[in-house]
Amino acid sequence: MNLKQLPLLMTPGPTQVRENVRHARSVEMTNPDLDPSFFKFYKETCGCLSDFLHTRNPVLILGGEGMLGLDAACVSLIEPGDRVLVIENGLFGEGFSDLVRLYGAVPVLFRGDRKREIDVAALESFLKKDSDFKLATIVHCDTPSGVLNELDKICPLLKSFGILTVVDAVSSMVGEEIFVDLWKIDICIGASQKGFSAPPGLTFLSISPDAYGVMESRKTPIASFYGNLWIWKNYEQEFWFPYSPPASDIYGFSVAVSNVLEEDRIVFRHQSIAKAVRSAILKTGLSLHLKSGYCATVTVMDVPGELDAEQLVRQILDEENVLIGGCFGYLKGKVIRIGHMGENARSDFVAKALFSIQKVLERNGIHLKEDMRTVFLEELEKECDEFKKK
Ligand SMILES: *Cc1c(COP(=O)(O)O)cnc(C)c1O
Protein backbone atom coordinates (compact mmCIF):
# COMPACT_ATOMS: atom_id res chain seq x y z
CA MET A 1 0.00 0.00 0.00
CA ASN A 2 1.32 3.43 -0.89
CA LEU A 3 0.69 5.35 2.32
CA LYS A 4 1.20 8.73 0.66
CA GLN A 5 -1.88 8.11 -1.40
CA LEU A 6 -4.21 7.19 1.43
CA PRO A 7 -7.50 8.99 0.93
CA LEU A 8 -8.97 11.64 3.22
CA LEU A 9 -11.11 9.50 5.48
CA MET A 10 -14.61 10.95 5.87
CA THR A 11 -16.61 7.79 6.53
CA PRO A 12 -18.95 7.32 9.50
CA GLY A 13 -16.43 5.00 11.10
CA PRO A 14 -13.71 3.96 11.10
CA THR A 15 -12.53 7.52 11.38
CA GLN A 16 -9.23 9.39 11.16
CA VAL A 17 -6.77 8.61 13.94
CA ARG A 18 -4.73 11.35 15.57
CA GLU A 19 -0.98 10.95 15.66
CA ASN A 20 -0.73 10.69 19.46
CA VAL A 21 -3.10 7.70 19.36
CA ARG A 22 -1.04 5.98 16.67
CA HIS A 23 2.15 6.55 18.64
CA ALA A 24 0.66 5.21 21.86
CA ARG A 25 -0.05 1.93 20.10
CA SER A 26 3.63 1.41 19.44
CA VAL A 27 5.03 1.70 22.98
CA GLU A 28 6.92 -1.18 24.51
CA MET A 29 4.91 -4.18 25.67
CA THR A 30 4.40 -5.52 29.15
CA ASN A 31 2.58 -8.68 30.19
CA PRO A 32 -0.93 -7.29 30.62
CA ASP A 33 -2.06 -10.33 32.64
CA LEU A 34 0.73 -10.21 35.19
CA ASP A 35 1.94 -6.62 35.41
CA PRO A 36 -0.07 -4.80 38.12
CA SER A 37 0.62 -1.46 36.45
CA PHE A 38 -1.32 -2.59 33.38
CA PHE A 39 -4.19 -3.67 35.59
CA LYS A 40 -4.28 -0.23 37.18
CA PHE A 41 -4.06 1.44 33.77
CA TYR A 42 -6.95 -0.67 32.43
CA LYS A 43 -9.13 0.24 35.40
CA GLU A 44 -8.31 3.93 35.06
CA THR A 45 -9.19 3.90 31.36
CA CYS A 46 -12.52 2.22 32.18
CA GLY A 47 -13.06 4.87 34.86
CA CYS A 48 -12.56 7.63 32.29
CA LEU A 49 -15.23 6.01 30.12
CA SER A 50 -17.63 5.89 33.09
CA ASP A 51 -17.01 9.62 33.54
CA PHE A 52 -17.54 10.22 29.86
CA LEU A 53 -20.90 8.39 30.02
CA HIS A 54 -21.90 10.19 33.23
CA THR A 55 -22.33 6.98 35.16
CA ARG A 56 -21.26 5.29 38.37
CA ASN A 57 -21.65 1.93 36.65
CA PRO A 58 -18.46 0.07 35.85
CA VAL A 59 -17.28 0.00 32.24
CA LEU A 60 -15.51 -2.94 30.62
CA ILE A 61 -13.31 -2.69 27.55
CA LEU A 62 -13.34 -5.86 25.46
CA GLY A 63 -11.06 -6.91 22.64
CA GLY A 64 -13.27 -7.03 19.57
CA GLU A 65 -15.03 -4.27 17.72
CA GLY A 66 -18.55 -2.85 18.13
CA MET A 67 -20.47 -5.97 17.16
CA LEU A 68 -18.88 -7.87 20.05
CA GLY A 69 -20.43 -5.39 22.48
CA LEU A 70 -23.91 -5.94 21.07
CA ASP A 71 -23.38 -9.68 21.01
CA ALA A 72 -22.01 -9.85 24.57
CA ALA A 73 -24.88 -7.77 25.97
CA CYS A 74 -27.48 -9.98 24.28
CA VAL A 75 -25.95 -13.34 25.10
CA SER A 76 -25.30 -12.38 28.72
CA LEU A 77 -28.84 -11.17 29.42
CA ILE A 78 -31.02 -13.37 27.23
CA GLU A 79 -32.34 -16.83 28.06
CA PRO A 80 -34.35 -19.06 25.73
CA GLY A 81 -38.00 -18.08 25.71
CA ASP A 82 -37.49 -14.48 26.88
CA ARG A 83 -39.53 -11.80 25.20
CA VAL A 84 -37.36 -8.93 23.96
CA LEU A 85 -38.65 -5.63 22.65
CA VAL A 86 -36.64 -4.57 19.62
CA ILE A 87 -37.24 -0.88 18.97
CA GLU A 88 -36.22 -0.14 15.43
CA ASN A 89 -36.18 2.64 12.91
CA GLY A 90 -33.15 1.52 10.99
CA LEU A 91 -30.85 -1.30 9.98
CA PHE A 92 -28.87 -1.58 13.22
CA GLY A 93 -32.06 -1.37 15.26
CA GLU A 94 -33.66 -4.13 13.25
CA GLY A 95 -30.44 -6.16 13.34
CA PHE A 96 -30.86 -6.70 17.06
CA SER A 97 -33.74 -9.07 16.27
CA ASP A 98 -31.29 -11.53 14.66
CA LEU A 99 -29.09 -11.52 17.76
CA VAL A 100 -32.07 -11.91 20.05
CA ARG A 101 -33.42 -14.83 18.03
CA LEU A 102 -30.01 -16.47 17.90
CA TYR A 103 -30.02 -16.75 21.69
CA GLY A 104 -33.48 -18.28 21.77
CA ALA A 105 -35.57 -15.27 22.70
CA VAL A 106 -38.68 -14.02 20.96
CA PRO A 107 -38.12 -10.59 19.41
CA VAL A 108 -41.16 -8.31 19.35
CA LEU A 109 -40.58 -5.39 17.02
CA PHE A 110 -41.72 -1.85 17.65
CA ARG A 111 -41.23 -0.30 14.25
CA GLY A 112 -40.77 3.42 13.74
CA ASP A 113 -40.71 5.62 10.68
CA ARG A 114 -37.28 5.11 9.12
CA LYS A 115 -36.93 8.77 8.29
CA ARG A 116 -37.67 10.07 11.78
CA GLU A 117 -36.76 9.51 15.40
CA ILE A 118 -38.85 6.99 17.34
CA ASP A 119 -42.23 8.44 18.30
CA VAL A 120 -42.10 8.32 22.10
CA ALA A 121 -45.86 8.82 22.58
CA ALA A 122 -46.57 5.89 20.25
CA LEU A 123 -44.08 3.77 22.14
CA GLU A 124 -45.77 4.66 25.39
CA SER A 125 -49.22 3.63 24.11
CA PHE A 126 -47.69 0.39 22.85
CA LEU A 127 -46.16 -0.31 26.27
CA LYS A 128 -49.46 0.36 28.03
CA LYS A 129 -50.90 -2.60 26.12
CA ASP A 130 -47.86 -4.87 26.28
CA SER A 131 -44.89 -4.40 28.55
CA ASP A 132 -44.05 -7.99 29.39
CA PHE A 133 -40.45 -7.77 28.19
CA LYS A 134 -37.26 -8.71 29.97
CA LEU A 135 -35.32 -6.16 28.02
CA ALA A 136 -35.50 -3.74 25.14
CA THR A 137 -32.86 -2.92 22.56
CA ILE A 138 -32.46 0.44 20.91
CA VAL A 139 -29.88 2.25 18.81
CA HIS A 140 -28.99 5.84 19.66
CA CYS A 141 -27.81 6.83 16.17
CA ASP A 142 -28.74 4.31 13.48
CA THR A 143 -25.75 5.05 11.29
CA PRO A 144 -27.01 3.95 7.83
CA SER A 145 -29.68 6.67 7.90
CA GLY A 146 -28.12 8.78 10.67
CA VAL A 147 -31.35 8.92 12.66
CA LEU A 148 -30.95 9.87 16.32
CA ASN A 149 -33.35 8.54 18.94
CA GLU A 150 -34.32 10.37 22.11
CA LEU A 151 -32.80 8.13 24.73
CA ASP A 152 -33.46 10.75 27.39
CA LYS A 153 -37.17 9.99 27.02
CA ILE A 154 -37.17 6.40 25.80
CA CYS A 155 -34.92 4.72 28.37
CA PRO A 156 -36.59 6.16 31.49
CA LEU A 157 -39.96 5.22 29.95
CA LEU A 158 -38.87 1.61 29.44
CA LYS A 159 -37.46 1.49 32.96
CA SER A 160 -40.77 2.74 34.36
CA PHE A 161 -42.30 -0.42 32.89
CA GLY A 162 -39.57 -2.52 34.52
CA ILE A 163 -37.82 -3.21 31.22
CA LEU A 164 -34.03 -3.43 31.05
CA THR A 165 -32.41 -1.32 28.33
CA VAL A 166 -29.58 -2.27 25.99
CA VAL A 167 -28.37 0.74 24.00
CA ASP A 168 -26.12 0.75 20.97
CA ALA A 169 -24.50 4.18 21.13
CA VAL A 170 -21.51 3.18 19.02
CA SER A 171 -21.87 5.91 16.42
CA SER A 172 -23.46 8.74 18.43
CA MET A 173 -20.80 8.96 21.10
CA VAL A 174 -18.67 12.07 21.30
CA GLY A 175 -20.95 14.02 18.96
CA GLU A 176 -24.03 13.60 21.16
CA GLU A 177 -24.21 13.72 24.96
CA ILE A 178 -25.03 10.50 26.78
CA PHE A 179 -26.17 10.39 30.40
CA VAL A 180 -26.28 6.73 31.38
CA ASP A 181 -27.40 7.20 34.99
CA LEU A 182 -29.86 10.02 34.39
CA TRP A 183 -31.43 8.14 31.49
CA LYS A 184 -31.33 4.81 33.36
CA ILE A 185 -29.50 2.86 30.65
CA ASP A 186 -28.60 -0.65 31.82
CA ILE A 187 -26.05 -1.55 29.18
CA CYS A 188 -24.60 1.18 26.98
CA ILE A 189 -22.28 0.07 24.20
CA GLY A 190 -19.56 2.03 22.43
CA ALA A 191 -16.57 1.26 20.25
CA SER A 192 -13.13 2.63 19.49
CA GLN A 193 -13.42 3.44 15.80
CA LYS A 194 -16.22 6.00 15.60
CA GLY A 195 -16.29 9.28 17.57
CA PHE A 196 -13.32 8.33 19.71
CA SER A 197 -11.18 8.10 16.60
CA ALA A 198 -9.03 5.14 17.51
CA PRO A 199 -8.59 2.22 15.11
CA PRO A 200 -11.26 -0.51 15.11
CA GLY A 201 -10.69 -3.36 17.55
CA LEU A 202 -12.27 -2.45 20.87
CA THR A 203 -15.75 -2.25 22.27
CA PHE A 204 -16.82 -1.09 25.71
CA LEU A 205 -19.95 -1.43 27.80
CA SER A 206 -21.29 0.17 30.96
CA ILE A 207 -23.18 -2.38 33.03
CA SER A 208 -25.79 -1.48 35.66
CA PRO A 209 -26.42 -3.38 38.90
CA ASP A 210 -29.82 -4.42 37.46
CA ALA A 211 -28.13 -5.92 34.40
CA TYR A 212 -25.68 -7.83 36.59
CA GLY A 213 -28.66 -8.93 38.73
CA VAL A 214 -30.34 -10.45 35.68
CA MET A 215 -27.14 -12.32 34.78
CA GLU A 216 -26.81 -13.59 38.33
CA SER A 217 -30.34 -14.95 38.49
CA ARG A 218 -30.18 -16.81 35.17
CA LYS A 219 -31.47 -20.36 35.13
CA THR A 220 -29.35 -21.35 32.13
CA PRO A 221 -25.63 -20.72 31.57
CA ILE A 222 -24.51 -17.90 29.29
CA ALA A 223 -24.03 -19.49 25.88
CA SER A 224 -20.68 -17.88 25.16
CA PHE A 225 -17.25 -17.77 26.72
CA TYR A 226 -15.85 -14.70 25.04
CA GLY A 227 -19.08 -12.74 25.21
CA ASN A 228 -19.81 -13.66 28.82
CA LEU A 229 -19.98 -10.42 30.81
CA TRP A 230 -20.69 -12.19 34.10
CA ILE A 231 -17.16 -13.62 34.32
CA TRP A 232 -15.95 -10.02 34.61
CA LYS A 233 -18.15 -9.32 37.62
CA ASN A 234 -15.39 -9.57 40.23
CA TYR A 235 -12.30 -9.10 38.10
CA GLU A 236 -11.28 -5.98 40.03
CA GLN A 237 -11.32 -7.64 43.44
CA GLU A 238 -9.75 -10.79 42.05
CA PHE A 239 -7.10 -8.86 40.15
CA TRP A 240 -7.58 -11.08 37.16
CA PHE A 241 -8.47 -10.76 33.46
CA PRO A 242 -10.52 -13.55 31.85
CA TYR A 243 -8.19 -13.38 28.83
CA SER A 244 -5.14 -11.37 27.79
CA PRO A 245 -6.25 -7.81 27.08
CA PRO A 246 -5.14 -6.38 23.72
CA ALA A 247 -2.67 -4.03 25.37
CA SER A 248 -1.55 -2.00 22.34
CA ASP A 249 -5.13 -1.35 21.30
CA ILE A 250 -5.95 -0.17 24.80
CA TYR A 251 -2.85 2.08 25.00
CA GLY A 252 -3.99 3.82 21.85
CA PHE A 253 -7.63 3.96 22.87
CA SER A 254 -6.77 5.42 26.25
CA VAL A 255 -5.04 8.36 24.54
CA ALA A 256 -8.04 8.76 22.25
CA VAL A 257 -10.32 8.90 25.31
CA SER A 258 -8.07 11.57 26.85
CA ASN A 259 -8.17 13.56 23.62
CA VAL A 260 -11.96 13.57 23.90
CA LEU A 261 -12.11 14.37 27.61
CA GLU A 262 -9.57 17.18 27.28
CA GLU A 263 -11.50 19.07 24.61
CA ASP A 264 -13.92 21.50 26.26
CA ARG A 265 -16.42 22.04 23.50
CA ILE A 266 -16.25 18.78 21.64
CA VAL A 267 -20.02 18.34 21.42
CA PHE A 268 -20.39 21.88 20.13
CA ARG A 269 -17.73 21.18 17.49
CA HIS A 270 -19.80 18.24 16.24
CA GLN A 271 -23.16 19.97 16.49
CA SER A 272 -22.04 23.11 14.65
CA ILE A 273 -20.36 21.16 11.86
CA ALA A 274 -23.39 18.91 11.44
CA LYS A 275 -25.73 21.89 11.26
CA ALA A 276 -23.54 23.66 8.71
CA VAL A 277 -23.34 20.50 6.56
CA ARG A 278 -27.12 20.20 6.56
CA SER A 279 -27.50 23.86 5.58
CA ALA A 280 -24.94 23.46 2.80
CA ILE A 281 -26.85 20.48 1.41
CA LEU A 282 -30.22 22.19 1.54
CA LYS A 283 -29.10 25.62 0.29
CA THR A 284 -27.39 24.16 -2.74
CA GLY A 285 -30.58 22.34 -3.74
CA LEU A 286 -29.67 18.81 -2.61
CA SER A 287 -31.74 16.81 -0.17
CA LEU A 288 -31.22 15.26 3.21
CA HIS A 289 -32.35 11.70 3.57
CA LEU A 290 -34.08 12.23 6.93
CA LYS A 291 -37.10 14.37 7.72
CA SER A 292 -36.06 14.81 11.37
CA GLY A 293 -33.89 13.29 14.07
CA TYR A 294 -30.51 14.39 12.74
CA CYS A 295 -27.43 13.14 14.53
CA ALA A 296 -24.33 15.33 14.86
CA THR A 297 -21.92 12.59 13.81
CA VAL A 298 -23.13 11.70 10.32
CA THR A 299 -25.11 13.31 7.51
CA VAL A 300 -26.95 11.20 5.00
CA MET A 301 -27.93 12.70 1.70
CA ASP A 302 -30.13 11.37 -1.08
CA VAL A 303 -28.30 11.10 -4.35
CA PRO A 304 -29.77 13.43 -6.98
CA GLY A 305 -31.17 12.37 -10.33
CA GLU A 306 -30.56 8.88 -11.58
CA LEU A 307 -27.08 8.60 -10.12
CA ASP A 308 -26.02 5.47 -8.33
CA ALA A 309 -24.61 6.23 -4.90
CA GLU A 310 -22.08 3.40 -4.97
CA GLN A 311 -20.66 4.66 -8.21
CA LEU A 312 -20.55 8.21 -6.89
CA VAL A 313 -18.63 7.13 -3.79
CA ARG A 314 -16.22 5.25 -6.01
CA GLN A 315 -15.74 8.25 -8.27
CA ILE A 316 -15.14 10.58 -5.30
CA LEU A 317 -12.45 8.20 -4.13
CA ASP A 318 -10.83 7.67 -7.53
CA GLU A 319 -10.97 11.25 -8.74
CA GLU A 320 -10.68 13.23 -5.50
CA ASN A 321 -9.00 10.80 -3.11
CA VAL A 322 -11.73 11.40 -0.52
CA LEU A 323 -13.44 8.39 1.04
CA ILE A 324 -17.04 8.93 2.10
CA GLY A 325 -19.66 6.29 2.90
CA GLY A 326 -22.14 4.62 0.63
CA CYS A 327 -24.73 2.45 2.32
CA PHE A 328 -26.19 -1.04 2.52
CA GLY A 329 -29.52 -2.79 2.92
CA TYR A 330 -32.54 -0.82 1.72
CA LEU A 331 -30.36 2.28 1.31
CA LYS A 332 -27.76 0.69 -0.95
CA GLY A 333 -27.11 2.80 -4.02
CA LYS A 334 -29.51 5.50 -2.82
CA VAL A 335 -27.59 7.66 -0.36
CA ILE A 336 -24.13 8.90 0.43
CA ARG A 337 -22.91 9.48 3.98
CA ILE A 338 -20.45 12.02 5.31
CA GLY A 339 -18.99 10.91 8.60
CA HIS A 340 -18.19 14.02 10.63
CA MET A 341 -17.36 12.27 13.87
CA GLY A 342 -14.27 12.54 16.01
CA GLU A 343 -11.19 13.65 14.11
CA ASN A 344 -13.18 13.83 10.88
CA ALA A 345 -15.25 16.65 12.36
CA ARG A 346 -12.86 19.46 11.44
CA SER A 347 -13.99 22.29 9.22
CA ASP A 348 -11.14 21.94 6.72
CA PHE A 349 -11.73 18.22 6.18
CA VAL A 350 -15.48 18.62 5.89
CA ALA A 351 -15.07 21.56 3.51
CA LYS A 352 -12.75 19.49 1.33
CA ALA A 353 -15.23 16.59 1.31
CA LEU A 354 -18.11 18.86 0.26
CA PHE A 355 -15.98 20.46 -2.42
CA SER A 356 -15.08 17.04 -3.81
CA ILE A 357 -18.66 15.81 -3.75
CA GLN A 358 -19.74 18.90 -5.68
CA LYS A 359 -16.98 18.52 -8.26
CA VAL A 360 -17.93 14.91 -8.93
CA LEU A 361 -21.65 15.74 -9.07
CA GLU A 362 -20.86 18.41 -11.65
CA ARG A 363 -18.85 15.97 -13.73
CA ASN A 364 -22.01 13.87 -13.74
CA GLY A 365 -24.06 16.79 -15.03
CA ILE A 366 -25.63 17.81 -11.70
CA HIS A 367 -25.19 21.52 -11.15
CA LEU A 368 -25.79 22.99 -7.71
CA LYS A 369 -27.29 26.37 -6.94
CA GLU A 370 -24.35 27.51 -4.84
CA ASP A 371 -20.88 26.50 -3.83
CA MET A 372 -21.31 23.91 -1.09
CA ARG A 373 -17.97 24.55 0.55
CA THR A 374 -18.59 28.29 0.76
CA VAL A 375 -22.07 27.86 2.19
CA PHE A 376 -20.73 25.38 4.73
CA LEU A 377 -17.99 27.73 5.92
CA GLU A 378 -20.37 30.70 6.12
CA GLU A 379 -22.88 28.72 8.13
CA LEU A 380 -20.17 27.45 10.43
CA GLU A 381 -19.01 30.98 11.07
CA LYS A 382 -22.57 31.96 11.97
CA GLU A 383 -22.78 29.05 14.42
CA CYS A 384 -19.59 30.16 16.09
CA ASP A 385 -20.72 33.78 16.32
CA GLU A 386 -23.98 32.64 17.93
CA PHE A 387 -22.00 30.56 20.38
CA LYS A 388 -19.76 33.48 21.37
CA LYS A 389 -22.81 35.67 22.09
CA LYS A 390 -24.13 33.14 24.62
C1 LIG B 1 -20.29 0.94 13.53
C2 LIG B 1 -21.45 0.52 14.31
C3 LIG B 1 -21.43 -0.66 15.04
C4 LIG B 1 -20.26 -1.59 15.00
O1 LIG B 1 -20.34 -2.19 13.75
P1 LIG B 1 -19.14 -2.59 12.80
O2 LIG B 1 -19.69 -2.50 11.44
O3 LIG B 1 -18.84 -3.98 13.18
O4 LIG B 1 -18.03 -1.64 13.05
C5 LIG B 1 -22.55 -0.97 15.78
N1 LIG B 1 -23.63 -0.16 15.82
C6 LIG B 1 -23.67 0.99 15.12
C7 LIG B 1 -24.90 1.84 15.20
C8 LIG B 1 -22.58 1.37 14.36
O5 LIG B 1 -22.61 2.51 13.66
Automatic annotation (TrEMBL):
The keyword Translocase does not apply. InterPro entries: Aminotrans_V_dom (IPR000192), PyrdxlP-dep_Trfase (IPR015424), PyrdxlP-dep_Trfase_major (IPR015421), PyrdxlP-dep_Trfase_small (IPR015422), SP_NH2Trfase/AEP_transaminase (IPR024169). It is an enzyme of class 2 (transferase). Belongs to the class-V pyridoxal-phosphate-dependent aminotransferase family. The keyword Transferase applies. GO terms for biological process: glycine biosynthetic process, by transamination of glyoxylate. Keywords: Aminotransferase, Pyridoxal phosphate, Transferase. Its cofactor is pyridoxal 5'-phosphate. Residues 62-324 form the Aminotransferase class V domain. This is Pyridoxamine--pyruvate transaminase. Its EC number is 2.6.1.30. The lineage of its organism: Archaea, Methanobacteriati, Methanobacteriota, Stenosarchaea group, Methanomicrobia. One of its GO terms (molecular function) is pyridoxamine-pyruvate transaminase activity. It comes from Methanolapillus ohkumae.
